[in-house]
# Entry
Amino acid sequence: MNTPLVIRPRAEDVEGQPILRPLPSAKCRNVGPFVFFDHMLETRYPAGKGMNIRQHPHIGLSTLTYLFEGQIQHKDSLGSDQVVNAGDVSWMTAGSAIAHVERTPEPLKDSGFTMHGLQIWLASPKDREHGPGHYSHHPAATLPVSDNLGVKIRMIAGSGFCLESPVPVLSPTLYAELNLQAATTLLIPIEHEERALYVLSGEVQLDGEPLEPHSLVVLPAGAEMTLFAESDCHAMLFGGAPLDEPRRINWNFVASDPALIDEARRRWAAGDWPTVPGESERIELPSGR
# Structure
């Protein structure tokens, strides 16, 4: 591929939260380890309302939640119970079986709030698909930042631009938040083999071609490209090393071997799964394949 691939996301709804989902798509199944990308659109919740995603299972992936506004309470079957603030990283590696809950903390729900953020899935390397799960929380102040000449780069996970995040990624990864002031330029290097850019807001050009907000652009391998902000711009740059082999995605399960997904579906349906302490409600297995 010598020219960028542009993907327009599809609109979805997750437990009442509107999202845009550019990955996976028919045009592109993954970018580096990133197999799933959800943009939780800026949404105002009145007092008494909020998000409540009941217990659900995962295998073979890591979830990463990063908010621009709002808070999420993360609880999982490891016993983790963490309020995630805007700018923090919530990182959960599923291993062979984990369950978690994501909801609006009650104090925030009581007052009304705005939610806006991203949740992505990264496929685990084949030799790390099994075994125990893991959870870690990384406050905003622990994430490295470069801020020079109107270009601010925050390294959320992985490495790039001489920055390295403390998030314990499992393979070479790039996940950076970009804020460019109007009339500034950023050279996107070829530090990682696979890269994509997601434009959250602003008018921006990539090598002289305009990009629409909420578009995902897969960059050509081995090509340095120049990002120019016509107005203040907010975007995400992500990618990493190619997957060691293709992945199957079925509901909340990611695996290199379809048999692992079949077994996970059977176990969740049968109730043979780790549970989140203090939680009884759960999302049942969807019918069909």
About this structure: The longest strand covers residues 34-45.
